[in-house]
Amino acid sequence: MIALNGSEQTVKVLSPYAFSICDTTGPEYETYQYGGIARQVKTESLETQLSKPDILTADLSKMEVPLQLHFGIHALHLFEEQYGRLPEIRSSSDATKLYELAKSLNEKAATKADSLDEKLLLHLAFTSRGCFPPLAASLGGIVGQEVLKALTGKYTPLKTVALY
Asked: How many CB atoms lie within 10 A of CB 29?
């Protein structure tokens, strides 16, 4: 069906191995013969994810922490944009600035955290310049694997959303 090439269609999932698309009974559509390639396109923007994040919760005993860390890391990026550097190690003034940025982001967001844990965000600021090589190596391996999954489409990535 050459008429479908380059077009975007809304997909209805029928089973793990089958899906349907738009009505293809019109005269512009040829008879389906075989095969074909479909590519999934995410239409969610980074701006949407920043204000109303779709967060994967890994630890069910700490349900509120992922959203707080989302605002903390977003605030960390804004801190770096404003001051041209990450917060100084163990600097209380920089940590307070980061906490205030995270608080303002939480107030503006569509999905808000009930309250921000000041201690958690201060520790994030205190350690933002640190590097723990074994953790960095593990995280690099996980991120590399997820990128390969997303690019090849062979396996399903953990979450296919915009990266910061």
From this structure: 14
